Structure formats: structure tokens, C-alpha cells
Amino acid sequence: MLNLSSAYRYLCAFGLAALAIACGGGASMTGSDAPAAAPGSRGATIRGTVLGAAAAGDVSASSLGTIRVSVVGTSLQAMTDGSGSFTLTGVPPGKVELRFQGSGVDARLTIDGLSDGQTLTLTVRVEGNNASRVGDDDDDEQGEIEFDGTVTLLNPLTIGGRRVTTNSATRFLGDHNDPVPSSQVLKVGNRVEVEGRAQADGSVLAEKIKLENDDDDDDGQKEVEFEGTISQLSPLTVGGRHVVTNSATRFLGDHNDPVPSSQVLKVGNRVEVEGRQQADNSVLAEKVKLED
Fold first, then answer.
1. How far apart are CA 188 and CA 240, in angstroms?
2. Which of 21, 28, 159, 219 has a Cα at 20 to 30 A from 141?
3. Residue 49's closest CA among 12, 74, 79, 86?
4. Is the peptide bond between 39 and the residue preceding it cis, with omega within 30 degrees of 0?
5. DSSP-derived secondary structure letter, 214
6. Cα–Cα distance measured from residue 175 to residue 148, given in angstroms and rounded to the nearest whole number
7. Coil, strand, or helix at residue 46?
8. Beta carbons within 8 Å of 180's beta carbon, 6+ residues apart
9. 235: cis peptide before it, omega within 30°?
């Protein structure tokens, strides 16, 4: 009986020890299966504020009601609070499309260049099917942009080498400042003047796009004045237009002081060109001025 009792106690002790080891092993495996996420390893975070649009300006999202903000193609979504704020976490890096849904609103906005660990803060104006990014302070004049250029692409809209976006508030004007359909202004080859605001992704949200009419000079050549970025030197290309210079061309710095041509003609420089349009649609520059 003593031997059997001892064996019984031994077996019970062994069983309890094995059970403890098994439980401990299970906890360890669970920990290894779900480790704490390292910073920057679970996508980007988007913190935003949604504004509504009105004729007199922006209105808070409280007048819109609650807006559902989702990442198209994923299960990620968030609802705006009373101040129109929302937060999305774990957003895939790269290019994503946000969708805003609410009473009278079903709009989409593309966000590009997201990276792991990034926190992006943005303000979005929504109206019907339109959504656009605005600066944190829309009254900040530093974000205002005005430039001339040629329409080189319609999708995406590219003017003078810059990507331009429009919405329902964009005004389209003819060369006599009269309101006209957008289709009359947005044609490849048209010279236009753009006024708008710079966006975080480098594009310009246009508030006004006006058709320009270059007047013919007495010799039949058109006087041309435009701004653009130098994209290549041979042939010289400014804002998508071929520019020709000669010994009479004046090169000016950003303070209108004469400077060597090599100081002005550099790829990436933003310049203002004045000259005459030639028969081959190039521009013979009378002046090329470096823009500040």
C-alpha cells in the first residue's frame, strides 16, 4: 500500500507540473503570436477635420451632421464628432482614397505619399460629390497662387507644368472676364490664368481659371507673357512651351537686376517669360526673369 500511495502521489505531482508547464508554454506562444507593434509598423494615421461649404464661406461640420469617413477598399472607417474631427489609424502606406458620406454628401478625396508611422493632419471641405483639401488656416495668404500657363493635359488637369484641381466653386471666365462653361476654357493648348490655393500634395485648387487672349502685334506675331518652371535646357522648355533666346534677350534676377543667363536658366527654376510667339508656336524671349 505504501508503494502504491507513493506512486499515486508521484503521478499527481507530475501531472500538476506538466499542466503548469503547458499553461506557461501557452502564454508564451500567445505573446509571440501577438507582439506589441513597433513604432511605424502599422500604417499611417490620418487626423482630419471636415468642413461644409457655403456661399459665404466654410461652415462647421455640425451643420452637416455626422460624416462617415472610410478608406476605400479597406474596412477602416471613422465617424466625425461634433466639431467635425475624425481619426483613422492603420491606413495603408502609399496612395489611398478617402470617402466622405453623410446627409447630402458622398465625396471622395485621393491622398498620395503616405508612409508607415506617418501622422497626417488635414482639413477637408465637402459639398455634395466634391471634396478638397484646404490649409489649416484658409485665410493665410501664403497659400494663394496665381500663374499663367498652357493647358497641356486634361486628366489630370495640368497647366504650365502644374497639376490643377477644380470643384463646384471654381469660376471659369472667358477672355473678357465673362462666365463661360468649363469646356470652353479647359482645352489642350489654351493659355489660361489660374488663381487658387496651394495644396499639401503640390497641386493647386483653382478658385478661378480665365481664358487668355494674346493680342496680335502689327507684324502678325503675338505678344506673349507667362510664368513657368524650366523643365529642360535643350531645347529650352518653360511651362511646357518651347522658348528661344538670342543676343537681345534680357535675363533678370528676382529683383529685376540684370544677371548672367546661367543664373536664370537652370532646370527647376521658376521664371517669367516675355516675348513673341513664332510661326512654329515657340516663343522668342525678349525677357526671362527669375521668379522669387
1. 12
2. 159
3. 86
4. no
5. P
6. 13
7. strand
8. 172, 173, 174, 211
9. yes
- The whole-angstrom separation of Cα 292 and Cα 289 is 10
Rounded Cα–Cα distance for residues 7 and 74 (Å): 60
Residues 146 and 187 in one domain: yes
Q: Does residue 113 sit in the same domain as residue 50?
A: yes
Residue 169 lies in a domain: yes
> Of 142-146, 152-156, 171-175, 288-292, which gets the smallest average pLDDT?
142-146
Which residues, at least 6 apart from 3, have a Cβ–Cβ distance to it below 8 Å? Answer: none
Please give the Cα distance from 251 to 217 (Å, whole number): 23
Identify the residue whose cell numbers are 478658385: 207
Distance CA 292, CA 290 (A): 7
pTM of the full structure: 0.36
How would you classify the pairing of strands 236-238 and 204-211?
unpaired
Peptide bond into 156 cis (omega under 30): yes
Residue 71 falls inside a structural domain: yes
Angle at 195 between CA 165 and CA 155, to 5 degrees: 25
Q: Quick one: CA dihedral 196, 199, 205, 207, positive or negative?
A: negative
Q: What is the pLDDT of residues 106-154, one digit of tens each?
A: 999 988 777 667 777 788 888 888 888 875 433 333 356 777 788 888 9
Q: For residues 126 and 1, give the distance between their C-alpha atoms in angstroms, rounded to a whole number.
A: 86
pLDDT of 264 > 70? The answer is yes
Strand partners, 47: 87, 121
Task: Give the chain's domain count.
Answer: 3
State which amino acid sits at residue 196: G
Between 17 and 55, the higher pLDDT residue: 17
Residues 201 and 186 in one domain: yes
User: Do 88 and 109 touch, CB atoms closer than 8 A?
Assistant: no
H or E segment and range at residue 97: strand 94-102
- pLDDT > 70: percent of the chain: 74
